[in-house]
Amino acid sequence: MKKTWGGCGSKIKWLISWPLLLLLFLTVPNCAKPRWEKFFMLSFILSTLWIAVFSYVMVWMHSLHRSSSPLCVFAGDYNRLHTGIPDVIMGITFLAAGTSVPDCIASLIVARQGLGDMAVSNTIGSNVFDILVGLGVPWFMQTVCISYGSEVMINSRGLVYSVVLLLGSVALTVLGIHLNKWRLDFKLGVYVLILYAIFLCFSILIEFNVFTFVNLPMCMEP
């Protein structure tokens, strides 16, 4: 019975993912094959572009749920009342998880190869890239190329607390690696997962004004 369910699950997974796999097969050279080894940079660039496209689609799908009610102008960019999830929480949970899957897979691959330094460096470097380039480039394009002299407003004052939590998480992660004698093992994995859970809990509680008032109340649709 389990074998049958596993077979059905694999077929369903294949049916759902085959259009995407076909698209990537036709557009991204497979460097694992000898004839495409010289085109590794092209594969890297195309893969990066596809990640950008998929990330844009995720954000666009999320924006479909944002409220268009005029009564919500002073409440910031929140989702519709039927979800009740602020944009910041969507960003640090669903969007962050979706866009970080490639980083997770890359770290997993190099960790299995015994390259622990590369796995840790990848996570740190990707976060630095996300903060400095992932924010700098779109803000530059918006304020210089698209609407010169405009400003990008940040509605949530809770982001200040989230940044503090982020820095604290990084410090505790480095401390945990140091105390574990710079070894990546099961204990360290559980430790960082607990840190991530704590970070999410505190960030969500802050955004919902549990500890202090950082956001205006959710608005009601007329």
From TrEMBL:
<dbReference type="GO" id="GO:0005886">
    <property type="term" value="C:plasma membrane"/>
</dbReference>
<dbReference type="GO" id="GO:0005262">
    <property type="term" value="F:calcium channel activity"/>
</dbReference>
<keyword id="KW-0106">Calcium</keyword>
<comment type="similarity">
    <text>Belongs to the Ca(2+):cation antiporter (CaCA) (TC 2.A.19) family. SLC24A subfamily.</text>
</comment>
<dbReference type="GO" id="GO:0006874">
    <property type="term" value="P:intracellular calcium ion homeostasis"/>
</dbReference>
<keyword id="KW-0050">Antiport</keyword>
<feature type="transmembrane region" description="Helical">
    <location>
        <begin position="131"/>
        <end position="149"/>
    </location>
</feature>
<dbReference type="InterPro" id="IPR004837">
    <property type="entry name" value="NaCa_Exmemb"/>
</dbReference>
<dbReference type="InterPro" id="IPR044880">
    <property type="entry name" value="NCX_ion-bd_dom_sf"/>
</dbReference>
<feature type="transmembrane region" description="Helical">
    <location>
        <begin position="88"/>
        <end position="111"/>
    </location>
</feature>
<feature type="domain" description="Sodium/calcium exchanger membrane region">
    <location>
        <begin position="41"/>
        <end position="204"/>
    </location>
</feature>
<dbReference type="GO" id="GO:0008273">
    <property type="term" value="F:calcium, potassium:sodium antiporter activity"/>
</dbReference>
<feature type="transmembrane region" description="Helical">
    <location>
        <begin position="41"/>
        <end position="61"/>
    </location>
</feature>
<dbReference type="InterPro" id="IPR004481">
    <property type="entry name" value="K/Na/Ca-exchanger"/>
</dbReference>
<keyword id="KW-1133">Transmembrane helix</keyword>
<keyword id="KW-0406">Ion transport</keyword>
<keyword id="KW-0472">Membrane</keyword>
<dbReference type="Pfam" id="PF01699">
    <property type="entry name" value="Na_Ca_ex"/>
</dbReference>
<feature type="transmembrane region" description="Helical">
    <location>
        <begin position="191"/>
        <end position="216"/>
    </location>
</feature>
<feature type="transmembrane region" description="Helical">
    <location>
        <begin position="158"/>
        <end position="179"/>
    </location>
</feature>
<protein>
    <recommendedName>
        <fullName>Sodium/calcium exchanger membrane region domain-containing protein</fullName>
    </recommendedName>
</protein>
<keyword id="KW-0109">Calcium transport</keyword>
<keyword id="KW-0812">Transmembrane</keyword>
<keyword id="KW-0813">Transport</keyword>
